[in-house]
Amino acid sequence: MNRAQLTEQILDIKREKGWTWKHITSEIGGVSDVLVVGALLGQHKLIKPLAAKAAKLFGLTPAQEAMLNEIPYRGTPMPPTDPLIYRLYELVMVNGPAWKALIEEEFGDGIMSAIDFDMTMERQADPRGDRVKIGMTGKFLPFKYYGAEQGLPAYGFKED
Predict the structure, then answer these.
(1) Which site among 42, 78, 118, 145 is 20 to 30 Å from 32 CA-CA?
(2) What homologous superfamily does CATH list for 108-160?
(3) Active-site residue 3, yes or no?
C-alpha cells in the first residue's frame, strides 16, 4: 500500500461511516484541524500519539499507522485544476506582489514561513451569502546575506 491508497481508504471509511471532518478532528485533536485533515489527505504527517488515535478511529493496521507518521511528499501539480484550490492560487498570484511589498516594507528582506505557521478558517455569516474567513500567521524569516563582513548586517531585518 502507498500513501495515496491509504488516503483513499481513509476517505472510503469516512464516507461509509458518514463522518464529518469536524467529527474526525474532534476525535483525533492535538493540533489544528487544518493539519489533521491535511495529514489524513497525505500532505502532513501526524506525530505518533495522533497517528495512533487516527489508526484506532479508522481501524488501521500498524503499518498504516506508521505511514501516517512518515513525512510525505507534499504539494500538487501547478497550476491546480480544482476550482477552489485554483481560486486560492489565483488569490496569491494576483495579490502576492502587493503582500510581498507590504511585508518587506514592514519587516525587511525575507519571507513568511509556511513551516512555523498557523492558519484558521471559519464561516462568517453575511446576508449576501456566507463568507470564508482565512487567517494566516507565519514567522518572518530574514534573508541571510552570506559572507557579510566589515560591520554589514548578516540578515535582512528592516533597516532603520
Answers:
(1) 78
(2) Cyanate lyase, C-terminal domain (3.30.1160.10)
(3) no
